[in-house]
Structures
1.
Amino acid sequence: MSIALHAQGLSKSYQSFKALDALHLEIPTGSIYGLLGPNGAGKTTFLRMVNQIIEPDSGSLHLHGEAMTPAHARQIGYLPEERGLYKKMKVGEQALYLAQLKGMAAAEAKSKLKEWFIRWELQSWWDKKVEELSKGQAQKIQFITTVLHQPKVLIFDEPFSGFDPVNAALIRDEMLRLHQEGSTIILSTHRMESVEELCSHIALINKGVKVLDGTVQDIREANRSNQYKLVFRGDAPSTWNIPAGVTASLTQRDARSGHQSVTFQAESPMASDLMSVLATQCQPISFEEVLPSMNDIFIQNVQA
Amino acid sequence: MNPFFIVAQREFLSRVRKRTFLLMTILGPLFFGALIVAPALLNEMTENPDQRILVVDHSFLLVGTDKVGKAVLDYLNPEEFSEHQAIEALQNRDEFDGLLFLPPSENGDPDFILRNARLYSKNDVNFDIVRDLEATLAASATEEKLKLRGVDPSVVSQAQTRVDIKTLDLTEEGAEESAVGLKMAIGFGAGFFVYIFTFLYAAQIMRGVIEEKTSRIVEVIVSSVKPTQLMLGKILGIASVGLLQFLIWVLLTGAIVAGVTATGLLSPDTAELAANPAMASSPIPAEITGTLNAINLPLLVGSFLFYFLGGYLLYGALFAAVGAAVDSETDTQQFMLPLTMPLVLTFVLATNIIESPNGAIAFWLSILPFSSPIAMMIRLPFGVTWPEILLSMSLLALGFLFTTWLAGRIYRIGILSYGKKVTYRDLWKWIKMKP
């Protein structure tokens, strides 16, 4: 597994406040990497370091194996959380300006921009002033200018804020397409459903420290809480005959199917034992281990 | 292309293409042209018509004088008109504007007469007329007094001598004719322009920075451009706008003044006065052409450009820092005062500098970089030695390098700080902070 972005021992303090404390991250090439954490955890500080906007007090950053210098910032596409455009400037000119700042030649930038504008049917916006656009429309332009120079690493900080569901889906599909074309994507967001839907890897940061990281699957596995869910037909027995230490929740009936379900909380993994015991006491439809959602893992780890 | 130039280019084009730029660029010279031409023009148009003054002259001081300046005098017989009756006559007759009453005196003492002279006015007798009447009365009183003492007035008038001393500047090249009035005008004008321009364009930098902060585009940009590059690009771009505008203004103002003079709207005398307002009070305007040569024009123009740019860079960087430190223009107040103080103070002291261009105040203000752009421009027409000019220029250059460095430290942190109201302590922390 090659590493697109490697952070080693990144630290940053503002007076007495430690924004980042020896952060170590390995972001694999071609991954969609979720960067999670509560407000003020240090995510934005980290992203600004990657973009060479601020310097770490100590530690290092490597992009595809090379120690990062300001010149590397051009190989990155960064959509910051606090983002905007010049209100009085025309959309086309502005997109061209931002593309040129990223090192693109004017002609190349223009033809690429035209492609995007045609694909998203925005041609009529080219000569409009930004202040005439809605917030969602301006966000689309920002997305385009972020990815236009085809950087290998893309960083999106809360990319879906300000989008309606239709446009959020458009942005999501575009991110997946870029991912398939080989881009490494770093996604910082509070929306856990997007994390579960999109991310292959995550890191959870809290108070400047990495709390956990790994693939989404591994993390959910590692955070299993020995909960099992049984769905069955017909009536439940008056009492469940279950091993000691296992507790059953109240039975719930699904209003539409009429099936009932019950959740068992065990002290240790015992899926097969529990399943064989329960199978004799009802007419089972399904039996599954309940893996914690990213939301649960987030809350658990942040509160701990 | 270097991102610094891309930023500068955007700053330049986005301003030059604005309608307000076009408007200011055209209206500016009209305004300045008007400022120069209007007083002279007004002076010519508001010539007062002659006023008619009734005179009751008991002591025959004015006898035989029909006209004094713009006042036409109509005499009433003192035998027939008492003071009271004369006033009545003035009130009943519309064509008269005033009444001058010169009382009788038993021994013909002119001092007594003039102490008790009265001017009754109906239609606000013009101030000039009052002055002229006073001068005429004083002259004839003097004549009377001389006669009373047996002196022939013609002897006195022959003995009077008029003196106009030519002032000469002693320089290394020898004596040069000086023209204090013209120098004052040029020095004050140049200082004034530097003052206005510095404020005008430095404030534009500040507004630009605030705009980038409030529109939240700044983080997008600093992910491709270093904050200092962004700041310097902005400063350079706006400086180019200022220079372009200044160039157009100079050309257009010159064209307007030349045009007005050529169409004969102004008589040549007034036009000459208009071109050099300070000379209006000088008794010999014809000497202007000669004394223009006494002033080193290339040095003046070169210095103007240097001090305009230097002052702009020095203050522009600091204004950029203020813009970066605040969230909106209304928050700028607390930081603006110490920035504008030296400028305003220097401008206030301008008269002091003009009065003694080589005095201690003038010297120090023109050496210290925070005041030198204005102060040196005021002093220059009076002649400043090269070592002083070079010292002042180098200090200004060092000054703007320093403020740019300082502003850069504040700027890079400030542009990414939102929400919190910033204090001077915070600024100091930012200056010391690593990026």
2.
Amino acid sequence: MRYITPRKAAQGLGSARSGTHHHWQMTVSSYALIILTPLFLIAVGAGIGLPREELMVHFGRPFPGVITALFIIVGMVHFIKGTRIMLDDYLYGNVNKLAIVAANIFGWGVIAAAVFALAKMAFTTPAI
Amino acid sequence: MADVNRGNRPLSPHLQVYRLPIAAVTSILTRITGHALVAGVVLLAWWLVAAVSGPGAFAAADWVVRSWLGFLILTASTWALWFHALAGIRHLFYDAGMGLEIHEAEKASWAIIIGSVALTLLSLIIFFIS
């Protein structure tokens, strides 16, 4: 038996049993994305229009590579958690659960594909 | 008690005829832009993967990125990104208990709309001159 009042045991948990954890994760990732957004636009904007070899050299450099990878990882995790709220609003029961699973598969699929591509560029092209 | 006034009462606002307040428009646009950004991210991820897949795959992806459709998707995504970022900053102010009055929310809504368009134009200008 835990020597804890019922109120203390329930405080901050809410109906989802996870309290404000989701909200706090959205807050933290949104602060990160505010910083990453302008840097990401610069990194990607500088790459658009380049021939394939130069593009691979561009994203193989530390700044464009790390910023683009970070933006896609943090952005897609922010998307997976954010879309959960929309799915909970509009879809119910098993359809809701399947849609959340699909959002996770899609989000992590995009992360894996983009990070793999960026890693391959970083590890196969010579630094110039 | 009998309702003698049936059919002649004021109706509650219906979504199809109700003019949404500007704060409601920017609120729903936050969700819409956040989800629409999927299109830009998928195009970018495809472009990156195609570049390491081979010259043929890259030619196809790069053609789409540099076509008018790609320009449309990337420009719309840039606006959606700035809009979602500014609206997200407003949410951080909301969390801090600031800007919750109606007149403040309306002012912030116009700041988000004008700011997102201005930042998109600035992004395009920087992209084309550099």
3.
Amino acid sequence: MTIRPISYAVLRGQVIESDLIEFGGRGGDISFLAPDPAKIVDRIPLASPRLMEDLYTLSFEDILDYLAELGTKLELKDNPYLQEALEYSYATAPTTKPIMDSFFHDMPFMFDKERIRGMVDFNIGIDHLEGWVEKAINGSKVGIRAYGARTLHIVAGNGPVLGALTVLRGAVTRGDTIVKVPSNDPFTTGAIARTMVDMAPDHPLTKHLAVAYWRGGDEAVENRIYQPHNIEKICAWGGFASVKHVTKYIQPGIELISLDPKRSASIVGGEALDSPALMQEAASRIACDFAVGNQTACAAARMVYVLCGTDDDGVERLKELGRLAYEAMLKLPEVLTTKPKRYDPSLKSQVDTLRYSPDFYTVIGGEQGEGAVIVSHTADRVDFWEFLADRTVNLIPVDTLDEVLDVIDAYTQTVGIFPESLREVVRHKGALHGGQRFVALGYAFNGPGLVGPQDGIEPMRRIVKWIISEEPLPGRVPFWEATAEQIKVVA
Amino acid sequence: MATIAPSHDTAIEREALGWMSDPYGHFDYNNTRIHTLPREEVEAVQLAAMNLRLAERRQQVQVLAKLADTQGITSLASLDDMAPLLMPHDIYKSYPVSLLAKQKFAQINSWLSRLTRHDISGVDVSDCDSIDSWLTRLRDETPLDVGASSGSSGTCSFYPKSKLDYRLSMTGMRVQLAQKFGQAPQPGDLDDKIHAIIPLYRDGHASMGAFGKYSCEVFAKGDPAYWHYAFDFKLSSDLMWLAARLRAAKARGDASQVDVPASLLARRDEWEQAQKDMPNQQLAFVNRMISELQGQRVFVMSTSNLLYAAARRGLEEGLSGVFAPNSVFMGGGGAKGVPLPDDLEEVICKFFNTDRMISAYGMTEMNSFSVQCDHDRYHVLPWVTVFLLDLDSGQPLPRHGKQTGRAAFFDMTADSCWGGLITGDLITIDWDHPCECGRSSVGIEKKINRVSEIQGGDDKISCAATPAAQAEAMDFLTGLEG
């Protein structure tokens, strides 16, 4: 008998496991059960914004205490919910077992108090969450404060940390958080929420979390929930189609925070090819940026532009760099990267096609679906650059930096840079073109982590509501006593 | 991969050679015979032809040689053994697009030469400064008439087909459209000059431009008085490519990054004039049809949306046509991704006074068009082997039951290129269901999608999108300084 796993709905302190109906997983390789969304839809949103009040009985330190305690309970070895979720997630996740194991193993670290404190202070400012930050401006005392919002999060499934991150962000901002879990990660967030229910069923933070699965595009469900009287914001991760789909529910009263599909690219200076040692270093750095997490994250590099020139000599050295990068990828530990679970067949066909244009492309590896390095011989990225995935990177020779900047656009997230001497010019000009995050090559995934600002979209600053309070300072002349010349309404 | 050499059956091989070299002649141009061959016989001949073609073409087409060598395939024991040798359509655009921008046609030429059996190495293209001039040079000096098409990602694909390929294609159109299925061909069906009404362009390297010329040869028997096109100018492939790049740049958020070579700018006035004349030319075309061709046997062939445009224009002017009862009205083709008006068939049928508009399924990369029968299936010519490939694995789906998959074809009549092609289309075939129309040939169901539409996003500027793309490119060009 096959056991069909359950994607539990956890609604405001209650675990729902009744009225289960079946859903097919992505790719049709696993199906799971979840409570019939039609039966629970009315319990998903918060009944009234009045009910946010209880979150303001908590201090920021109280919230940190709660999260830190939750962190200790998310130790995989002690938590049967997470163990079960991990076991089932092997089948649904886009990545492989070693990578998933390491994600789950690392989860408690995300709940470390000091990490969270740093994340909140950098992104929002704790004082803005704890009270009014006031300043005298033009004869008035103006206060600004970050209030929690009722936010629906449509979470992507390319990494199981995203559910945990959403729970964290909701809690520290005193938000009311609805998580619509994705079909390729339908178990993890529910397991975290169940742990919260066991730990503190009546705690306001437990009560302000609703986790459920429904099929994206299920209009009967979405039309009920996605209404201005239920939610104030929608924070949507994901691909072009899913974000585009959500836009139809946007109306006055609902704000969309769109974590658009993003891609990342890197820039390597020509001097990186000058010595065998530098070339080896550049290759190892490149491998870390494109292969980690099997290239499922938007921060993973898809293209690497190398300022080695497009003459024969430059291209020959680039091929050597490509071979080294390919070998470096194979040497990375399996907690970081493995042979992809399934190499996209249409990508394989496109990569293979290039093998028949040896004048223009060199393809290194990729025969066994393990990932490949494609070396362009001209300054062209491959035609299918938007679909590079499963540890497939394109190295492109260029003569000038300007050619690289031309391909940085509004869809660019992370730009890796090597050597550092390029940083000033790349990050300045790159920012004008649309690049959002500039990192040292090789450190795309080895920085402050997801507790950092993520990228230029600033989701944390945007899931809160910024509220303004104004009081006249002494000496401010009221309109009813003012002369006509004293009145400057607009200024 | 282990392969077993098939046993040689000389009778079947002889048959295969006949189909390969002169398919329509081999069946006396009899459409009913062509579409009523027993399935087993067809498949046996197809397999023999595949082996003959493989042996021959691997000596001639470099990319095929490399593909077959890599796979270790020397002969095929079953139709499905062909699957690894089918080429993805992307291969026809697998050159770096910067070579086009820099007008390095000699380099693109040498890339192209690996994809055709015809030797084009002796052609000097070093002075070509545009796609149009390069492809015209090839057309003038070699057997090729390269088919160009543009994609919205800013690329341009080049399928090095030959003039013979185009002629075969058009002959197939005439054979399949002129005859009534179930009856022997009438003498006029084969030999008469027939008025070809083609609401397309006079010339061009995209199918929309090339189609007309070859219709003139095959339908009008070369008599220009029998060839009626709507737009009296050459559809420019440079303009199409510019349109493709503009769309790609717009999607990226910065259309100012599109460089326009001087050679293109120089032709701006000429194109602008042509574009400006289009409405008048279209009206003149409609008028000419009505006044000159009333009561005549006509073959009207175009994409549905251009046919619609002409018909609507006619109705707006209070005109409609009455043609001989054995006339044919064919639309369709390439409408994928472009919304068609709801009253499409109504307007076309009303203007042309016909109760049925038929359509055909085909593509630049294939000689053989599949014409729709009265039961809405596109029937595939017997010299074309259809494969339905699993979207995930790329493996052929069983040739029985009702199957939906990525369409792939092997066309044994391909003269210039390797005839094995994997398309971007998703099609359905019910292998076990004999079509009610009486044809025994394979029938493709009416509903055809682009695979990429299913998977989100499409890259092709289809034939139907051609006029709009041209207009966009012209708007951009006329907005440039200089």
4.
Amino acid sequence: MHCPGFLANNNIWVSLVVGGLANGFLYALIALGYTLVYGVLKLINFAHSEVVMAGGFGGLFTMRALLGTSTPAGFWAIGFMLIGILAGALAGGATALVLERVAYRPLRKRNAPRLTYLISAIGASFFLYNIAGKEFGRYTEFIQAPAVVNGNAFTLCGVGVQSDWVLTMVVAVVLLVVLDAVVSRTKLGKGIRAVAQDAETASLMGVHIDRTIALTFVLGGLMGGVAGFLFGLQFGVIYTMGFVPGLKAFTAAVLGGIGNIRGAMIGGLLLGLFEAIPLRWMSAEWQDVVAFGVLVTLLLFRPTGILGERLGREA
Amino acid sequence: MALLEVTGAEVRYGTVPALHDFTISVDKGEIVTLLGANGAGKTTTLRMISGLHHASRGTVRFDGADISRLAAHKTVELGISHVPEGRRIFPQMTVIENLEIGAYNNPHHQDAKIDHVFELFPIIKERRKQQGGNLSGGEQQMLAIGRALMAEPRLLLLDEPSMGLGPLFVQTIFEIIRTIRDQGVTVLLVEQNAAKALQLADRGYVLETGRIVLQDTAAVLLRDDRVRMAYLGEDIGS
């Protein structure tokens, strides 16, 4: 692959930026779940971490059942990865749907105060990851992936680009484009935006508020679940796996402008880069310190995030 | 037969009754207006009919069917469009998107319906690509009525359509309401501007603290002393 001259002797930059973007795309996928739900409910779904975890386990169990110890190659390998992605999406979507029904809708029907939602979210989160730990074991398990996903896809400026990074980025780009189209063009998307801007008036237009909110959770859950599978592919699957990426993605959503879909995408990518770039000069334990230092500084100058709130009502 | 019949309805906000033993009817093709002071229950009446609030007692019948328990997103499908107080345009959607969402469950002939709205309100056609939040109050009111028409209603509920508008816009809005009725839509109108409302309407009801205290043809109400004093601001003592 062609290498621009200025990068030829800066291999480290290539690997930091590519790796940072790969993580950034994962954050972006997860961040969308926070931002969509915030848009329609003005609520941070802190149990979204567990949606990510569910996607990891969904993918793990499906791949294990389908592949056993075999490692298919070529065309079949791609087919199996797509099945894994689909399994992650379904597990995430189903978990998000159950969360809405069990943890949030009953509160909404009773006009509960905001703080109650927060407690319900944290409670649901603890419940879900502890039950996963109890049922699935408290150690990291690795997804048996086809050989094609291990190793490097290609070499860029002398740096090997990991296949799972490439997979992550391709899948994320496709999902982000599809989601953007769903929200801006489809009937469901119009309903979501209408509920976000003025739920009562949306119902006067014929929008079924409960169904629209549930489907908003599902949309976010599908993407969070895929992110969970892709994350598990790189780092393994364990009951606590959702916590850190979930929290970081939430931060990314705020950085981009909570409630703003494109903001969540940009915020995720930026956070991925903020984390990776400092590794050029300092050791890994400084990574989060620097990334979040930059983030807080940015928010001081733009308190509503980079793009500001958009999907939602004026806060 | 009446298109809309509310019989013995009671609506409560918590323990406070907002409507009590409330009975009105609207015939097909009529313009009926509800008059009353702030807090008399006019907005509550419209919210009850469109399903935003449910009556704890009594019935709401539309075209013969009991709709007392229906949610708002269902009543619009039956043919009741509610233009809420304060217009409630979706601020971050374009004019076209606001109209499109008015036809959310009824998207047939959408372009033809949008053209029809633009015929009624040429001003908003010029603003078609702008965000709803950037329109003036009068333009927003026109958009709100146009958006309601996109669902092809048989009954149009209008809550204070002239509120906060300049005299020119008020005139236009009232002319349009007449046109809409002439095109076959029945209208139930809540309006602060009682004189204008009675000039336009066929019949009227007067509400006080959640009860109907007076009902008659608009012509009779316009001459009624109580109405003239309380709602038309006329001094009849002299």
